């Protein structure tokens, strides 16, 4: 069993999203492989092979003006060429999002939709959103009888997300069907971290 943790933190190995990603790796132990998207990534084919070899994917990002990070956006743009291939098809995906105060659940919901389009599926309770305001509320009511913030998402809830992802990753993937789609061009060579990106999608303007 192999779970790929996509660390989409804008600050790489520092910051809130990196804490979530590192905690997930600790929970998963030897089952985890982490890819930090702000780093220099290996070649396109190597990234494809890494995705194809995993059994499930945990996507981690912060919230930046109601969207995920720019490294994660670029990753999604490049791996669009892997839609419904063994890189994604039939694999479960979960999301862990950090945010200041707003926008996290919307970002997570859109990430689930994006990865569903790539060929993944979402198991139950496969999202956690940890916020600064939520953690302050948890701290303010800690120890109270009938704690009103007991159900606010916190770091500990990531263990449930990871458990459900691993459970889903053990399920067979042979019975899914893919819809018809126009395959994009998968280029060889180094990872295109910046500059123009042409995957030979249809041009109509």
TrEMBL record:
<feature type="domain" description="NADPH-dependent FMN reductase-like">
    <location>
        <begin position="1"/>
        <end position="132"/>
    </location>
</feature>
<dbReference type="InterPro" id="IPR029039">
    <property type="entry name" value="Flavoprotein-like_sf"/>
</dbReference>
<dbReference type="Pfam" id="PF03358">
    <property type="entry name" value="FMN_red"/>
</dbReference>
<dbReference type="InterPro" id="IPR005025">
    <property type="entry name" value="FMN_Rdtase-like_dom"/>
</dbReference>
<dbReference type="GO" id="GO:0016491">
    <property type="term" value="F:oxidoreductase activity"/>
</dbReference>
<protein>
    <submittedName>
        <fullName>NADPH-dependent oxidoreductase</fullName>
    </submittedName>
</protein>
